[in-house]
Design a protein that fits this description.
mainly alpha, 155 residues, three-stranded mixed sheet, 4 helices, zinc-finger, Herpes Virus-1, zinc, elongated, metal-binding, zinc ion binding, Znf_RING
């Protein structure tokens, strides 16, 4: 079990590093070579793909604007940026980032995932944070407190 927890935390940290690297490269290309952050209209900031089907946009803060369809849904965050459904889910769930990939505005995951069967990753993300604290930081804190009490002679 310890190895599973260790590799789970390590995998999450690696995913976080990868998403940070992706975020640092979003929208920074110009033909003249000078970096400038600009996202064109109709482009997903995560995958760089076209957002052609603008009538199937789902607002995160309100219910969907249209009915269900076979096409991939588009989600519009509170900041106004639009993403493919699976791109933003991958960004939020796999990368454990609760921010817009482009402007870094906070995303409310409770509003984004309305169905209860879509929310277990929220619980497991918090559980992994707690385990990371327990496994990584608590031994260091206990050692520091023990060293201070020994140094002060408060044994």
């Amino acid at each position: 079990m310890f190895y599973g927890v260790y590799y789970g935390v390590l995998g999450r940290d690696f995913a976080h590093i990868c998403t940070d690297r992706m975020a640092s490269r979003i929208g920074y290309y110009t033909p003249d070579g000078l970096p400038k952050k600009h996202l064109e209209d109709g482009v997903c900031a995560v995958c760089g793909g076209r957002l052609d089907d603008s009538e199937h946009v789902h607002e995160v803060e309100v219910k969907s604007l249209t009915g269900e369809s076979d096409d991939e849904k588009l989600y519009k965050l509170s900041c106004g940026h639009v993403f493919h459904e699976w791109c933003i889910r991958g960004w939020v769930v796999v990368g454990k980032l609760q921010t817009c990939p482009y402007c870094k505005e906070r995303v409310d995951l409770q509003r984004m995932f309305k169905n209860p069967w879509e929310k277990p990753h929220l619980f497991y993300g918090k559980l992994l944070d707690w385990i990371r604290y327990l496994v990584c930081w608590q031994p260091l804190i206990v050692t520091a407190v023990q060293g201070i009490t020994t140094w002060l002679g408060l044994e």
